[in-house]
Amino acid sequence: MNNAILMSAGADIDIMVHGLFSYEVFGQTCWITTTHVCVLIVMILLIGFFIAANRKIKHAKETPDAFQNVVELIVEMLDKMVKGVMGVNSVKFANYISTIFIFILMSNISGIFGLRPPTADYGVTFALGVMTFCLIQFNKFKHQHVSGVLKGLCDPWPIWAPINIISEIAVPISLSLRLFANILSGTIIMALVYGLLGWIATFWPSALHVYFDLFSGAIQTYVFCMLTMTYINQAIDSE
Amino acid sequence: MNISGNDLILACSAIGAGLAVIAGIGPGVGQGIAAGYAANAVGRNPGAKSDITSTMLLGQAVAETTGLYGLLVAILLLFVKPLTW
């Protein structure tokens, strides 16, 4: 940590990812970090919720009770969102988009519950970006075939191919960096408020939490899923 | 007072981090313009408010990216310190 900030702070400012224990793989030292633990907590919570929802929907009743109502509301909302962007292609991708939507949303707002948000680690968001990239390229090759992809790469003239390749590679990087930097900046600002102000920071930082964790997290989740859907849609029908 | 090369690099990194965050000006102006036009559009067509809001938020979030790159450079300079040895 930076000494200058630490000296002026009453409490410890902690924004970094910490290693918990290390292990050796092929001569490389790998670390299990706090991010892994936070992702695991989010995953366990989500999987528990999903199993409960699955059981509930399997024994769905004509007149839904509270939990069934909530599950149906969430699924309908996500389906509507995917359908609004992808139209007829939405059937195949609704599951994937809904899954990453719920995962990213829960990761982003886990800062409220005292975790370090897993999406404030570039490893997590880069994995999400790479998944989007693979989906885009797979659908491009599937629906436009090799000739179409090559034609798209040499768009005005073949001499533009390197620039087009760079713009293809820039998609996952900009997607993941946007999510990462937004959540990280929120985490840093909250850590600074708590660390620098000490006892003054009682009660009123909750308003900051609402903005940086809830609002910003929800917006960035929406943007990530929206852009993923737009890119996939572009790859599917670009004729 | 003697300043080692490492200290000088740290000080310059701090200045560079401050300069890098100036990148926030552009997205601020851009987001303001987007919000202004969105307000204009809602005023003309209040029925399409939800569509306009979601389009505006999407555009603003994409415009924000360049500012965030500046922020990332600042964070890297301050916390990762790539130039020191």
Helix/strand order of chain B: HHH
| Uncertain regions spanning at least 5 consecutive residues of chain A | 1-11
By CATH reckoning, the class of chain B would read Mainly Alpha
| Name of the CATH homologous superfamily of chain B | F1F0 ATP synthase subunit C
* Tally of DSSP helical segments of chain B: 3
> What shape does the CA trace of chain A take?
globular
Low-confidence stretches of chain B: none
> How many domains in all of chain B?
1
Task: Please report which band the strand proportion of chain A falls in: under 5%, 5-15%, 15-25%, 25-35%, 35-45% or over 45%.
Answer: 5-15%
Short description:
The complex is a heterodimer of chains A (239) and B (85). With 239 residues, chain A is mainly alpha-helical.
Question: Key features?
Answer:
heterodimer; A: two-stranded antiparallel ribbon; globular; disordered N terminus; B: 85 residues; mainly alpha; F1FO ATP Synthase
Write up this protein.
The complex is a heterodimer of chains A (239) and B (85). Chain A contains seven helices and two strands, in the order H-E-E-H-H-H-H-H-H. Chain A has 239 residues and is mainly α. Chain A has one domain (3-236). Chain A has a two-stranded antiparallel sheet with strand order 1-2. In chain A, helix 3 (66-86) crosses helix 4 and helix 4 runs antiparallel to helix 7. Chain B is an all-alpha fold. Chain B has a single domain, classed as Up-down Bundle (F1FO ATP Synthase). Chain B contains three helices and no strands. The radius of gyration of chain B is 20 Å and the shape is rod-shaped. Chain B starts with a helix and ends in a 5-residue tail after the last helix. Chain A binds chain B through residues 1-2, 15-16, 174, 177-178, 181-182, 184-185, 188, 219-220, 222-223, 226-227, and chain B through 54, 57-58, 61-62, 64-65, 68-69, 71-72, 75, 78-79.
